[in-house]
């Protein structure tokens, strides 16, 4: 004999228990507010089991949160309390002295304390109040022998009323109830308390849409068809980041099509296609999904347009070959970090927004979806993830994201994710001028330092913009030079730089934190030794961390690199770089002097503000004529400093002219006097400021993207070279004016024309 299926299940996610009731095929709908039978059923199940949240599952799911579930659990406990006490027993209704009233009183109390309590507790409470008022009004006219027994009955009713009023539900609606002489028909008032969160059944995670009354709307935009809204909460430090995907606002028929399609295609895996190739075969799977949706719609008599089919297919792809809710967040290029902490489902996902800083989302990630994502990560990375290998660290190229997944025993509360998003296109110095991270003069100085082949370390804390700054400086390297990058996580825009004309070779090393490293992966120090044998090249270290520092500095000291060397390092300022490299990483002082510049960025909280703003705070030259401590012996020369009080970056021209050993070396090697160097820096600054001015004047932000700035920078240098050949030296003012005209006639005109053409097309597309 087949085992009878239970009408409910209890599922635990993290520390939260879900009471899940299957409502498919039921004669009444999945709504506690609308259906008394459903309320009675839920209260009955809560009396048998413990739960924190309730899920009524059909084609879509209605999720009732902890507060709503607690109200219903209190009613279940109250029902049990009345049953155990037996409030409808004769002794509580007045006893033998009121025997004539016992049947009526028994039916009344059973109706209030049992039947209505389960199906309509508000009416039960109001009926109890009315019964008390009626009995009190009749009490003076009763004969003495009946007064005592009626008083007993009144005591029972008062006891029932007091227990009702101890529940959160009655406390919340008591004021509303007392204003009414009788309740209106229907159950509309329950919607003020038991309005559930709607969630498609095929989605593991859930979204919360309820907002406080005094919320302030700050911004709205779309990410791949999903509405993103930024709010300011009156009582929270962080902003609220809410997403509203299209799958949360579809018709029941479309939900049905989605669920059936996902059920069918989840078992489909074409022969010969590897799991890791799914992301690259999206077009193929989209065609499969569209055909399946059309077939299911036809078989079930559901009318659906071609546009609807395409939208539904994209949603199915998101939860089959994509990364679900995580994929939606990672598609927002305005995010820099996504944090999904353990235990999953207990707290909302936390993100860092490039414009609004730390934000709390309305997304609650589930264990079910986490298991699916972890499975994908294991397959894509080729790394294990289990109790013996509790860290999984790799690059998710599709989303320009560096992922770090941790599990037990390292994370005792279960799986957690930290995801670092990188800008799809590299930052440029003009873009940094535009957002005030640097001034144009500082940008001109940085550009000159790269052209002068300075060996530089980009310094800062996590989130200070080190890698973004390194990207922008890489774009100042001459495209004619060969570039080799070494990274343990692939953050640098190598593919993009290749498309813009760079000859660039990328080396991937073993991750510094991955526990389950692949045996074939090469250590950072071995990769560096290999890079030094690959010929004359610019060398870019993604991050200087450990043993590779010894190899790097030895190569720099003996001139094995012979070109620009750059890398990032975690530190606070130039002195702390020396302290870490020499004292922590074991690099000798004589080798550390091979560093020319320490370029420091930092997140600034102006006057203690909650919002952090990135600024370049220091450019420090490492001198060569010190022996033990560069701080005490004047070995650290400030070329640029920052004043946070006035938000001012100051380039120290006197130090460049008089104290800088690096610039004296440039004078000797290039035959340039200090005035020529300064003029070069100033005109580089002017050229970059000009691009920012054009971008703002004509509203063409694309002008500052790398694919344009690299070409414009090349043209500027070529014009300088032509002037040098014709005149024997560079006529900087003329070169700059000619170049500005060339930019206006070419790129500015082209982008303005493209912008205007798009503006004409958009309204028509929107109307369609």
How would you characterize the overall build of this protein?
It is a single chain. By secondary structure, the protein is an alpha/beta fold. The protein folds into three domains: 185 residues, no CATH class; 214 residues, Beta-Lactamase, CATH 3.30.450.380; 246 residues, P-loop containing nucleotide triphosphate hydrolases (Rossmann fold), CATH 3.40.50. Strands 7-8-9-12-11-10-16-15-14 form a nine-stranded mixed beta sheet. It has a nine-stranded mixed beta sheet with strand order 19-18-20-21-17-22-23-24-25, sandwiched between helices. Helix 14 packs across helix 23. The chain starts with 7 loop residues before the first strand and ends with a helix.
Q: Order the strands across the largest sheet as they lie in space.
A: 7-8-9-12-11-10-16-15-14
Look at the structure and give the CATH class of the largest domain: Alpha Beta
> Helical amount among residues, as a percent range?
40-55%
Distance between the termini: 58 Å
Task: Evaluate the radius of gyration.
Answer: 35 Å
**Portion in strands:** 15-25%
Mean pLDDT: 87
CATH superfamily membership of the largest domain, which one?
P-loop containing nucleotide triphosphate hydrolases
Describe the structure using short key phrases.
9-stranded mixed beta sheet; 25 helices; 44% helix; 25 strands; alpha/beta; 768 residues; Beta-Lactamase; disordered C terminus; Rossmann fold
